[in-house]
Write a structure and sequence with these properties.
9 helices; single chain; 3-stranded mixed sheet
């Protein structure tokens, strides 16, 4: 699977709160491990060197290379960005971003510096935000992780592309993530199949978990609202269909106009100039 995950054994799921006020919700019951398999590499996957470092630093608590968090967080973030991911990018933007991400982000940095020196900084900043909005809504949210990886999911008419650049994400001189830089291409229908497989597997495993908890929850020191648990299970089953009906958040005509206008005002020595 593209979205590879495992839920923690039910008896090992950690409760929220402090004694005697311990509780668990649907979200909390998704505690587990996950990563993305992109060809021969893995995203959201720590490097061997990082795993060894943490195993020495925290021998009693640290596990393997997968991200250790609530699986539902990856699922929610994926669904939240799905409508924008599936909206094909204009070829001018996609060719820039695909060919040289570092040049694109250097252009953004230079542009922001230029904005800071404009007489009408608020107006310039508004145009800047419009020009760069497309890539922000296509970046997988991983801010909840320390040394968070940079991963974007976007598409052309033919393919969905997963791009990453973690080359400078280091801790104590160690490369944090196993995959440093690259692109992974997958046909649009295949990507949707993978999203549905992720959704269906999570919903199926959580349905079993919910029924087990509601039928015989033995950890009585941890409060569980079983009625709400069942309600949330039924509600979340609908989220993929709702995400697929959601409208994209970016107007490409506005984005291209802002990008062209701002690039035209940048000094010619800057890294990326807009043409056409």
């Amino acid at each position: 699977m593209l979205f590879d995950f495992h839920l923690c054994p039910l008896e090992e799921v950690k409760p929220w709160g402090k004694p005697p006020d311990l509780s668990l919700s649907w979200f909390g019951f998704t505690e587990g491990f996950y990563r993305l398999q992109v060809g021969l590499e893995f995203l959201l996957n720590y490097s061997d060197e990082m795993v060894n470092y943490w195993a020495k630093q925290f021998p009693s608590v640290y596990g393997g290379s997968f991200v250790d968090y609530y699986v539902v967080r990856l699922w929610e973030d994926l669904l939240d960005m799905l409508s924008d991911v599936l909206e094909p990018m204009p070829s001018k933007l996609s060719s820039f971003f695909e060919k040289d991400q570092k040049a694109w982000f250097q252009w953004e940095s230079d542009l922001l510096n230029w904005v800071d020196n404009q007489p009408d900084e608020d107006k310039a900043l508004e145009m800047f935000e419009l020009a760069v909005s497309w890539q922000r809504v296509r970046r997988l949210d991983a801010a909840y992780l320390q040394n968070s990886p940079r991963i974007w999911i976007w598409s052309t008419e033919e393919s969905v592309i997963i791009s990453w650049d973690n080359t400078d994400i280091v801790l104590e001189g160690i490369q944090v993530w196993s995959a440093t830089q690259g692109h992974y291409y997958i046909k649009r229908d295949k990507f949707l199949d993978e999203v549905r497989a992720f959704h269906n597997k999570l919903m199926s495993e959580m349905a079993e978990r919910v029924e087990s908890v509601c039928a015989h929850w033995c950890r009585t020191e941890i409060h569980v609202d079983t009625g709400h648990l069942r309600h949330e299970q039924q509600d979340r089953k609908r989220w993929l269909d709702l995400a697929l009906k959601k409208s994209p958040s970016v107007d490409w005509d506005d984005v291209l106009a802002a990008t062209k206008m701002m690039s035209a005002n940048m000094p010619s020595s800057r890294t990326l100039r807009w043409s056409g």
